[in-house]
Specification:
This is DUF58 domain-containing protein. Keywords: Membrane, Transmembrane, Transmembrane helix. It comes from Bacillus aquiflavi. There is one protein chain. By secondary structure, the protein is of the alpha/beta class. The chain folds into three domains: about 55-160, C2 domain (Immunoglobulin-like, Sandwich); about 190-225, no CATH class; about 230-385, 3-Layer(aba) Sandwich (Rossmann fold), CATH 3.40.50.410. The chain is built from ten helices and 16 strands. The strands form four sheets. The protein has a six-stranded mixed β-sheet. Helix 9 (about 360-370) links the parallel strand 15 and strand 16. Helix 6 runs parallel beside helix 8 (about 330-340). The longest helix is centred in the first third of the chain and has 26 residues, at about 1-25. The two termini are about 45 Å apart.
Length: about 375
């Protein structure tokens, strides 16, 4: 179709030149021949532009960094290089993201230059994977008699991570024996839970020495301590359609980071069209997979949260204290979470927008949740905190 349009423009140009030439031949005089000779340069340029191939231009895209977090700006540099310095009066460079309806246009004045470059900044990139696959070039003559455009392949991948905010997390459970044992846990010695004595080993502290037992056995003996189990907590991220879902993802990532700093073993359950479960103690590779999930996750779950909690009752019963992160709260959710408070205090983080005070609908729900042993923490204006 584009070739047909270009060919029709060329025929229009040739017909125009022929009409002006016929007018000069029959009319004669200075004015008619002046119009004809004035049209000749423009016609020749348009004719040359018709045979000029924009695909000979080589495009290279350079990114300052290809991995960003929500709120950061992306700086892009486009470098264009061509073989033949054909005079171009203008060149429109347009880019479009494949994952969203956003275009960026830059106007260049190439002239006879073989190499050109342009820079632009993209703001407000949403969380997810974005692809820059091609560059659209467009040029023409100053009178619009001839236009040329082409699309050049130039692929780049941009990853936008959710915003992770430093938050302070204080666990509600302070017991030693809860949850299930997990590998790679950080063992913390506490002198208040000494269970016996053993022979001295290199690295033992001076304060651990049991002088009485050392004197009896005539060798250095140190106290042997109980190894407390780490917290094993299950985080359930609600993926039901919600206007605050981006805040839910950001808060979940921030909360997991804060828990990890506390030495708490964490598992994550993300239920949508597919069930995604990350067990605790997965190491660096699992952390990479976890953030990859945060990049691609969407609020596309057709199953309500209360049904998800009912379906995942085995996983929830193994957890010391289930933590639910959601953007909506109702009686059915509270009743389901209340079934798992026997092994520890359950917590619901309710993500909402900025508001001045508690609504009339929330107060009875908060009272009902408290009666079932559930701690409900309302997190409002988290999107403003994460900026």
């Amino acid at each position: 179709m584009k070739r047909v349009i270009a060919f029709s423009r060329l025929m229009t140009l040739l017909c125009l030149v022929g009409v002006v030439f016929s007018y000069a031949m029959f009319q004669g005089g200075f004015v008619s021949w002046f119009l004809f000779y004035s049209l000749i340069p423009m016609g020749l340029y348009a004719l040359s532009l018709f045979f000029y191939d924009l695909k000979h231009i080589h495009v290279k895209r350079e990114l300052v960094k290809a991995e960003l977090t929500v709120g950061e700006k992306l700086k892009v540099t486009l470098k264009l290089r061509r073989r033949f310095p054909f005079p171009l009066l203008y060149l429109v460079v347009k880019e479009q993201f494949s994952s969203m309806e956003r275009t960026t246009k830059v106007l260049l004045i190439p002239g006879f230059r073989k190499e050109m470059s342009c820079e632009y900044i993209i703001e407000h990139l949403p969380r997810g994977e974005h692809f820059l696959q091609s560059v659209h070039l467009k040029t023409g003559d100053p009178f619009g008699l001839m236009k040329k455009e082409t699309v050049l392949t130039c692929e780049n991948k941009i990853i936008v991570y959710p915003k992770v905010v430093d938050i302070v997390y204080s666990p509600l459970i302070n017991r030693h024996d809860h949850g299930i044992a997990a590998s790679m846990e950080r063992i913390q010695r506490e002198t208040t839970v000494a269970t016996g004595v053993r022979k001295y080993q290199p690295g033992d502290r001076y304060s651990w020495i049991n002088w009485k037992a050392s004197a009896k056995r005539n060798e250095m003996m140190t106290k042997e301590f109980e190894q407390p189990h780490s917290h094993y907590m299950l985080l359930v991220m609600d993926r039901s359609p919600n206007v605050y879902f981006e805040d839910i993802v950001s808060f979940t990532a921030s909360l997991m980071k804060a828990m990890t700093r506390k030495g708490i073993q964490i598992s994550l359950l993300s239920f949508g069209p597919d069930r995604v479960f990350f067990p605790c103690g997965g190491g660096i590779e699992q952390e990479r997979q976890l953030f990859h999930h945060f990049i691609r996750v969407a609020d596309n779950s057709a199953v309500p949260l209360d049904r998800v909690l009912d379906m995942e009752r085995i996983s929830l019963r193994q957890s010391a204290a289930p933590v639910i992160i959601t953007g909506q709260l109702n009686k059915a959710i509270i009743e389901k979470v209340g079934q798992y408070t026997s092994q520890g205090a359950a917590t619901i983080f309710l993500i909402q927008g900025k508001k001045d005070k508690e609504s009339n609908e929330e107060h009875p729900l908060l009272t009902f949740a408290l009666s079932r042993g559930i701690h409900v923490k309302i997190v409002d204006a988290f999107s403003e905190v994460s900026r």
